[in-house]
Amino acid sequence: MDFGLNLPSYGPVASPGTIVRFAEEAERIGLGAVWTFERLLRVVEPVSYGGFAPPAPLPKAYATVYDPLETLSYLAGRTSGIRLGTSVIPAPLHSPVVLARRLATLDVLSGGRLVVGLGQGWMRQEFAVAGVPPERRGARFAEHVAAMRAVWGPDPVRFDGEFYEIPESQIGPKPVRPGGPPLLAGAVAPAAVARAARLGLGLNPVVMSWEQLDETVTGFRRAAEQAGRDPASLPVVVRVNGSVTAKPLDERAPLTGSVDQVLEDLPRVRSLGAAHVIWAMRTHPDAQLAVMEELLTQAL
């Protein structure tokens, strides 16, 4: 298991210089990956976050979000070994051919360092501006993954589905690894978690409590077995929407708080078989790197 950080590619701190310095320093201290996400717009009206929470304003930082693939392509030329990941891109908001080609190009440019976290999307306003109906987005997501895998397969490519069709074509470049870069599903609902397992995707859950994380990972592995897949072959990448802090916290979520408190939590997340932990922190980028360097020194 190794660790990663969300890039400062959104909000008032985002700038080309900040993003590059952050990624270069993350690589220097030994982090396994840096991550981006996609948000097409910050609507002013309150929205139901994730589609299930009470309506509330979106974070003000979402007013500026750098495109994830352009950002990672920029970093591919400024780093050499650290993995470059998305957590996550709402796949149905994109054409599968266009997205597959962009991902393959980034994978080739980075020397095969790309890790792709995908979601089915949830914000109805984003579906509207993308010109995609939000209904049956789970089924659309599954077919989108199949269409992208077809694009990454041998030429000539052809795909005939309910939502997407690709005429017999030659489509390149192909990704570095046969079949494409590692794919993760950002999933919370049990049906979405089970779908990810059936599709042979890894899982990228957000940890909200230990009980929730245990149930999610257990359900994912059970669904993989039922689908005839080897659960051990499907990676689990845990996302922490919270910070590692300089001082201990009296009340905290899993994998947040001081370095010592996070060190106490790591055996539990290791016992779940997690391959990687991403922190999406709310502190200054320099502070994030400092606490992660201390965590790496003591944990590895």
Automatic annotation (TrEMBL):
- InterPro entries attached to this UniProt entry: Lucif-like_OxRdtase_Rv2161c, Luciferase-like_dom, Luciferase-like_sf, SsuD_RutA_monooxygenase
Query: Which residue ranges does the record assign to the Luciferase-like domain?
Result: 14-247
User: SUPFAM superfamilies of this UniProt entry?
Assistant: Bacterial luciferase-like
Keywords in UniProt for this one?
A: Flavoprotein, FMN, Monooxygenase, Oxidoreductase
| Keyword Ribonucleoprotein applies | no
Asked if the keyword Transcription regulation belongs to this entry, the reply reads: no
Superkingdom to which the source organism belongs: Bacteria
Checking PANTHER family in the record gives: ALKANESULFONATE MONOOXYGENASE, ALKANESULFONATE MONOOXYGENASE-RELATED
Q: What is this protein called?
A: TIGR03619 family F420-dependent LLM class oxidoreductase
What is the source species? Answer: Actinoallomurus vinaceus
